[in-house]
Design brief:
Elements lengths: L6 E8 L17 H8 L1 E4 L2 E2 L5 H10 L22 H7 L3 E6 L14 E2 L27 H4 L2 E2 L4 H22 L6 E10 L4 E2 L1 H4 L21 H9 L9 H32 L5 E7 L18 H4 E2 L2 E3 L6 E3 L3 E2 L3 H8 L18 H5 L9 E5 L8 E6 L2 E5 L6 E4 L17 H14 L2 H22 L26 H6 L11
Length: about 500
């Protein structure tokens, strides 16, 4: 397959903290393949999720819209089929589009523009995980088993899933390399690691000395936690029984092992690109949906605006891209316009509506100076009890809540976010400016009303659809191996010799 426009391989991990990667200055991490991408590409040092939770983050990324704009309020919110996605746009621009792995689509449309989907999703596609602001302890939430069962395993459900995702993605790359389809491709490969459970294989555990695994830098006691953080640990059943220091280190060790596992999977994909000759004309974009707190501030998982949960890795690599690090604030909503520009639509003429992001390609290629615009993020899921809204401009981060005290952090002087400057008169001007940005971006009161109504609707539908014959929205993938099998009355020799990649007769 030859094309003038570049192919695009997106590799998305799940719950991958930027500071758990060697390329993001972690001296303990073992991520040579990701680091190699970073060494030869553009690394964004201030990239953020727009919603620190799986499904809303992905819907926001796919649509180029903030989650509140499209009603993606939690992990049980539908992603409407009527919303154009980055996949629709690339397909419109002549790309063949394929998804392998997790995307956490909710609703009967499990494709959202993809021509092919080669695996089922790892999570349910219905309303079972609908958020509920009235619940203190959601029945589908994490709990202490995360820590009592952390450690080493031979296999678990997530390893089984990601092994299969990688296998099918590799096979798809080989198929693309020998295909007669002249269109460039978008292959979106999405792994579920290093998402908890905090378990990894022995080989990945053994890459680290246990004593080299550091403990949380900021281990906030409950007495010093902000009200929302207290609600978070109550959700996870940790308020009365936090993990022991040994459990914390074991969980963090297994997480680092899982990150190394992801790095191995990335290496397998890169090896196929090199083997097939696709590497020279493929843009590789590596990112995640949100980070992982790993005990920082006494918290775990996501659903927080602390840096470990909402700052994410974002690396863009191509042989013609010069290595550079970019300090500009960017976010996942920027990926849609970025991919449009990569696909040839530099002026974004194919957009049917305004999107929240801007193309990052000028920053990637160095053709434009770094922008000083703010990034916006939302947390509207269970536990919030009201819209939690974040804006970051420069090195200042502001978090708004209608029920909790606002927060203002100066990341230049306080990178670990231990000092809330909201009452500091020296920050009064910037507080006023960022508060005004929040008011311009959101009508928090109206948004709260919409969320509550949406939760009521979906809880009712969840209960009703559980009666009688259930509705199954989960995607059932076909077996792509079938396309390589002899069927019907085809001639054996024609079938056996027509799709060979890289054949040569050996020299004497």
């Amino acid at each position: 397959m030859q094309t003038d426009r570049p192919n695009i391989l997106v590799i998305q991990a799940d719950q991958l903290a930027a500071n758990a990667i060697g390329a993001y200055h972690n001296p303990v991490a073992k991520t040579p393949n990701i680091d190699s991408l970073a060494a030869g590409g553009a690394v964004f040092d201030a990239a953020y999720t727009n919603f620190p939770l799986c499904a809303p983050s992905r819907f926001s990324m796919m649509s180029g819209q903030l989650a509140s704009t499209i009603g993606a309020y939690d992990n049980g919110a539908e992603f409407p089929a009527s919303i154009p996605t980055l996949v629709h746009y690339l397909r419109h621009l002549g790309y063949q589009t394929c998804l392998v792995g997790k995307m956490h689509f909710i609703g009967p449309d499990q494709l959202h523009g993809f021509e092919q989907r080669l695996t089922t999703d790892i999570y349910p596609g219905d309303f079972c995980w609908t958020g509920d602001w009235t619940e203190v302890r959601p029945k589908f939430g994490n709990d202490v088993v995360t820590f009592t069962d952390a450690g080493i395993c031979k296999r678990n459900v997530q390893i089984e899933y990601d092994d299969e995702v990688c296998h099918r993605a590799r096979r798809k790359l080989y198929d693309l390399a020998r295909a007669r389809d002249e269109r460039p491709f978008l292959l979106f490969t999405s792994f579920t690691h290093p998402h908890d459970p905090f378990q990894c294989r022995q080989e990945h555990w053994d890459r680290f000395a246990h004593d080299d695994i550091g403990m949380p830098t900021v281990d906030t006691a409950q007495a010093d936690m902000d009200p929302y953080s207290l609600r978070l640990i109550a959700q996870y059943g940790l308020k009365d029984g936090p993990p022991s220091p040994r459990q914390v280190r074991v969980a963090r060790h297994a997480y680092y092992g899982s990150v190394s596992y992801v790095d191995d999977l990335v290496g397998e994909l890169l090896a196929v690109l090199k083997d097939t000759g696709l590497l020279d004309n493929t843009v590789i974009l590596l990112t995640t949906d949100h980070g992982e707190l790993l005990g920082e501030h006494g918290l775990w998982y996501k659903k927080s605006f602390f840096e470990d949960a909402c700052r994410i890795p974002l690396i863009v690599s191509h042989p013609q891209i010069e290595a550079r690090r970019i300090d500009a604030n960017v976010s996942l909503v920027d990926l849609l316009p970025t991919l449009l520009e990569i696909a040839g639509d530099e002026k974004q003429q194919s957009l049917v509506e305004e999107v929240a992001g801007q193309s990052l390609w000028p920053l990637v290629t160095g053709s434009s100076p770094e922008a000083g615009r703010p990034v916006y993020a939302e947390n509207l899921a269970e536990g919030a009890t009201t819209p939690l809204l974040m804006v970051k401009r420069g090195r200042i981060k502001y978090v708004y809540s209608a029920v909790d005290k606002d927060q203002l952090f100066d990341l230049e002087h306080d990178p670990h976010e231990t000092i809330n400057q909201i009452d500091n008169p020296d920050y009064a001007q910037v507080y006023q400016e960022l508060s005004q940005l929040v008011q311009q971006q959101w009508d928090a009161e109206a948004l709260a009303q919409d969320i509550v109504q949406s939760q009521r609707r979906r809880r009712f539908l969840r209960q009703t659809l559980a009666r009688g014959t259930p509705q199954d929205w989960d995607f059932a993938a076909s077996d792509e191996l079938e396309q390589h099998c002899l069927r019907s009355d085809r001639v054996y020799s024609n079938w056996a010799y027509e799709d060979i990649l890289g054949y040569r007769f050996p020299e004497e």
